[in-house]
Design goal:
124 residues; alpha+beta; eight-stranded mixed beta sheet
């Protein structure tokens, strides 16, 4: 009976767990619009930034590959998470970055809301 228990235990331990080791898709900012609702990594160059201090929630916008108002993709950081990023509008401006998270859409533009510093990775 003991070998059977060991077999069952090992079988369940070695079964793949959905999402546990799943790789996220790596996309360009232009490809993100076709992946709304997906969890992915989106990469591009931060070409314009804005910290909207007088807007509700004091959002910071990091626009990839095309500046506002023709942005292709936006990384959004709410003020409640801003301290984790320092001054993101200065730190990331002009840099190539990748952001990982769920792609959503706001006014027909794809975006990811970043809540943790580790979600944005500077590229070389």
């Amino acid at each position: 009976m003991k070998p059977f228990r060991t077999f069952v235990f090992l079988t369940f331990c070695l079964l793949p767990v959905p999402g546990l080791h799943a790789q996220t898709k790596k996309l360009t900012s232009a490809e993100a619009k076709d992946h709304i609702g997906d969890r992915a990594t989106v990469c591009g160059k931060v070409v314009s930034t804005h910290h909207a201090k007088s807007s509700k929630g004091e959002p910071t916008f990091l626009n990839l590959d095309e500046p506002y108002p023709k942005e292709v993709f936006t990384i959004l950081i709410w003020d409640s998470d801003r301290e984790k990023f320092g001054a993101p509008e200065d730190e990331y401006r002009g840099s190539r970055v990748c952001v990982t998270g769920k792609i959503t859409s706001y006014r027909n533009r794809p975006e990811i809301v970043a809540t943790e510093r580790g979600e944005i990775e500077l590229q070389k």
